[in-house]
Request: fold
Amino acid sequence: MYVPSVTHPIGDFVREWVPKLSAYLPEQLQSQTLDTIVAFLVNAVICIVAVCAVNIGSAPILIYMERKVCAHVQCRLGPMRLGWHGTIQTIADVIKMLFKEVYAPSGADKLMFYLAPLIVLIAPFMVAALIPFDKNLVVSDVSMGIPLIIAVNGFGVLGILLGGWSSNNKYSLLGALRSGAQMISYEISFAMILLFVVMISGSTNLMSITQSQAGTIADWFIFKIPVLGFIGFILFFISSTAEMNRAPFDIAEAEQELTGGYHTEYNGTPFAMFYLAEYIALVTNSALATTCFLGGFHAPCIGVAFVDNYLTMVPGVVWFFAKVFFMIWCYMMVRWTFVRPRVDQLMDFEWKFLLPVNLLLLGAGAAYIVISG
Amino acid sequence: MSEYIILSIFLFLGAFIAAAATVVGLLLGYRTRNTKNKMAPYECGMQTIGNARIQFKVGYYLFALLFLVFDIEALFLFPVMANFKEIMSGNTPLSPVVVIVDLAIFIAILVSGLAYAWKKGILKWE
Reply:
């Protein structure tokens, strides 16, 4: 039986099922090209459904999680009324959001106003398509994975600037400008850290970066290179927090200064799209940290065969999402623990501290590779 | 190639979902009369003064220019860094010493640019 050549399907599902399905077709229609096209279409549909489910489904969970984490940090209980421990609170919020009126304020550039949430959502979806969730579970295994992620991340800034400018509101404009300046500044250290990861792994493909961390915990990039890996991880954590506009780097929407920042004038579903993009970015950035530093979908083996056998029995996806949720928990704890810096402190921190440290880290990594051969 | 085709679907997927949500919001949303006060841009409850398209600080511009330089530098470094290990192991026709010296010159020019901007006071935010 001919097996269609779909290079990287979601799982082995497509490879297994398309030949079986094509056997039901009439004789004249059975052909290799048709099988390939069908396999490609099935593959694409599964990819889209899976990524949409993961992305959109994770947002309510994360909002609930954030409320609970923040409540318990502040010795409160958080949402408790709707459902068991407030579990369906976010669903009620979504329904409320759907029935809100959608309108642009007077003087707003209507086209740009409604275009901004569209552009903001592009980036997180594309990054999610590049992340390997398991050995065969990657939507698009391109060789230029990391440069593509850096390029696509720039879309978010465009959407935020557009939304802030088109609202015809001073708070929005100021919030958008601050946010733009912050995001492009921290994008440099973000790129530099990914450059460091590329240097150690010797590849820009996310799948081979994950594969080069196979083995025990000691082979993960956070521990593989003594001290440097850990410094790199911390720097990645800082710059990705700033990239996502999350507290403590949320000067863009500092509610005490700028009301809501760039989305002050948005309401209803377009506002929900900004919110959704923020939470999907949280997932994708955690996934990127997991892939680049925490061994991706590999089990945390410790080198003892007896224990490792049990650990590797658990599917890679489970490990991947366990690590992702650990990272998300870290981001949330940081958000509710640290205070917000001023604008000038924030820019100084990036240009006068993070960027030189990043360059030094790059040099140290190169020296390590030269010395260790 | 098929990977890039799927990726291009994803380029429009996010935008499509946002557009669908906006249309749903427009259809389902509760509607009220567009009074002048409702449509006015929010400004702490006061009467809105003037237009929001004001002049802003030139500092944002200078940071954007610096960003351009450093981001493109990072992109230029990617091909070298991806093959750095291999070049250092000596399996390629390139000499490791020459590559390191070239990289050092490249980064030194950029660092001197950053130092110049720092000295000129562009990095100072006020």
Q: What stands out?
A: Chain B has five helices and no strands. Chain B touches chain A through 70 residues (CB under 8 Å). Chain B has two domains: 2-39, 59-120. Helices of chain B lie at 2-28, 36-39, 59-82, 84-88, 96-120.
